[in-house]
Structures are given as C-alpha cells and as structure tokens.
Specification:
- The protein is an all-alpha fold.
- Helices cover 78% and strands 0% of the residues.
- Helix 3 crosses helix 12, helix 3 packs across helix 13 and helix 5 packs antiparallel against helix 11.
C-alpha cells in the first residue's frame, strides 16, 4: 500500500475543509449557485457594478452563513486538538477535552450568568471564568492529595471537579424560572451555533487560533511524553512545563468553544482516533490534521442540522448521534492505531 507524505495529508484535508465550507455557504433556505457565489466574491474583491442580488447576498453570506462557517471551523478545530493533546498527555485513548472539568465548569458559569443577568456578555464571561476555575480545582485536588503531579491523580481530580460543577449546575437549574430561564439553559447546553455573529467570531478567533497553533507546536513533545515521563525527562523534555502549557492552551480553547456555542461533545474524542488510524500515532502530523478535520466535521454536522429537518436540531445532539456509532466502528481498530 502506497504511503502518503505528511504534506499530502495536509493538502487533502484542507481541500476537504474548503469543499465543505463552500457547500455550507451555498446550501440553506435560500440556495445559492456556485456561479452566483463566484460572481459575488469577484464583486467584493475587485469591485464593479452591484445589483439587488449582491445586496441580498451581503445579508445572507456576511451576516448569517459566513459567521457560522467560521465559528464551526474554529470550535471543531479547538475541540479536536484539545482532545488529541489530552489523549497524548494522559496516554489514554478515552480522554476528551472535558477530562479536567472545563466543560462542566463553563456550563455552570454560563447557567449562573443566565440566572443572574440578561446580558449576554455576562454569560460568556462567567462561562470562560468558571472553565478555568474547574480546571484549577482539578489540578489542585490532583496535586494536593499526593503532593505530586501524577497524571492518574490529575484525572481523578478532573472527575471530582466535573462532578462538583455538574451538581452546582443542577442547583442552578432547580432555582431557574421553569418558564423562561430553565428552557434557555437547557437549550443552550445542547449546543448551538445560532448565536454566531461576525464581530464575535473575529474577536475570539485570535485566542482560539493561538491556542490551536500552540497545541500543534507542542505535538513534537507529545511524541516523547508518550514514552513515559522519566524517558521524556531523560531526553531533555521539561515534562511539567509542557503539560502545564498544554492544559492552559486546551482550557482556553475548550472554554471559548463553550462560551460561543454551549456543549458540543464527541469531536475531541473521535476525530483524533480517526486521524490516528489513518496516519499513525505521530503527533507532528496528528495535531494539525485533527485541527483541519475537526473543523470540517463540525461544519458538516452544522450544515446537516440546518437542512436535514424542518426545524434546526441542536448541534450537540447531532454530534452525539453521529459520534457514538463512529466511535463504535473505530474502537475495533483504535488499539492498533494507538500502539
């Protein structure tokens, strides 16, 4: 079987992402032809004589579809690279971005924001802040119990932190108005990209892209850390600093995904497995491919959620329905790919 070069995988995945993004811009309640889209892009880039169609496309593309496309790519990339990084750090194929409690903490923060304020920026700020608080609690428990930096204790700290903030979230739901606030909290927790706007997406794109790129750069260290901490230290790797940097970057990326779109599961778990089966365990290639394919996967799921039914299905539900059978399929070969 012919072995593809890393650059071939990157180019192939990028073409896939470009195709899915183009289809997502074209498909919708108001379908747009490819020729119309090309003419519109030429008009926006080179100028010329506009018409009523282009004015309408300004609203459809720039205000509605493009923000969702960009946000889906950002969140899919962030969750997939975070999942791949955590799986590498903990040397565990069952780890996902929520292992240290970031998703539970951010969910609690957002729900509390909806309970105490009707300002959306308060909700987003509390979601981001409590994502970090939850990870801080996990790290504190993991280091306090054994006075060491064992990855096992860190995982147990994450389990405790997740349970704590899930319980606090239940209290918030119990206290919320059952006719207004509670439905809003429940719908938001299902995950949705309907709140995407171009200004907000551009604002968070800088920290999210920086986090994703940072995790990709750390990929070369993950390969050495997968040999074990002692072996990595013997090869000159500062394991503590690499692990701390990866946790911070993955927490920023995961928290911002919750801030913008609620809880979207399974991407951080299944995408790294699929990529690992295709290209092998080397994180130098696995990390950038996870970013590209993760973005394409969430974008495709969002497009299906908009068009497959008469009403839009929350994307968190759809990713779960897709992710479960996909994970069962890849699970058969996951062990060989991981090794």
């Amino acid at each position: 079987m012919k072995k593809f070069k890393p650059i071939s995988w990157i180019i192939g995945a990028s073409v896939l992402l470009l195709v899915v993004a183009t289809l997502s811009l074209l498909w919708g309640q108001y379908p747009i032809t490819l020729d119309t889209l090309i003419s519109y892009l030429q008009f926006k880039v080179f100028g010329g004589v506009g018409n009523d169609t282009f004015t309408m496309l300004d609203n459809i593309i720039l205000q509605i579809r493009l923000p969702r496309v960009l946000l889906a790519i950002l969140i899919g990339s962030a969750l997939a690279t975070s999942g791949a990084a955590f799986q590498a750090m903990f040397v565990n194929p069952l780890v996902s971005p929520g292992i240290l409690g970031v998703l539970a903490g951010a969910s609690f923060g957002a729900a509390m924001g909806m309970l105490i304020s009707d300002q959306w920026f308060v909700v987003q700020l509390l979601a981001f802040a409590f994502g970090f608080v939850a990870v801080g609690v996990a790290v504190l428990i993991g280091t306090m119990v054994t006075n060491s930096r064992s990855t096992v204790m860190l995982v147990l700290g994450g389990v405790i932190s997740s349970a704590l903030f899930t319980s606090l979230l239940s209290i918030i739901k119990y206290l919320a108005d059952p006719y207004s606030t509670l439905p809003a909290i429940v719908y938001w927790l299902m995950g949705s990209l309907t709140m995407a706007d171009l200004h907000g997406v551009l604002l968070i794109s800088v920290p999210m892209l920086a986090s994703v790129i940072g995790l990709i750069v750390l990929g070369k260290y993950f390969d050495l850390m997968s040999l074990g901490d002692e072996e990595a230290k013997a090869l000159g790797i500062n394991v503590t600093m690499v692990r701390l940097g990866a946790i911070i970057l993955a927490t920023i990326a995961s928290s911002l995904s919750v801030v913008m779109a609620g809880i979207i599961g399974w991407i951080g778990l299944i995408i790294p497995h699929i990529i690992r089966m295709a290209v092998g365990p080397s994180h130098r290639l696995l990390m950038p491919l996870s970013a590209i394919v993760g973005g394409a996967f969430l974008l495709l799921a969002d497009t299906i959620s908009r068009l497959a039914f008469s009403v839009e299905v929350p994307i968190g539900i759809l990713t779960s329905l897709i992710g479960i059978p996909v994970f069962i399929i890849v699970l058969k070969n996951a062990r060989a790919a991981w090794n």
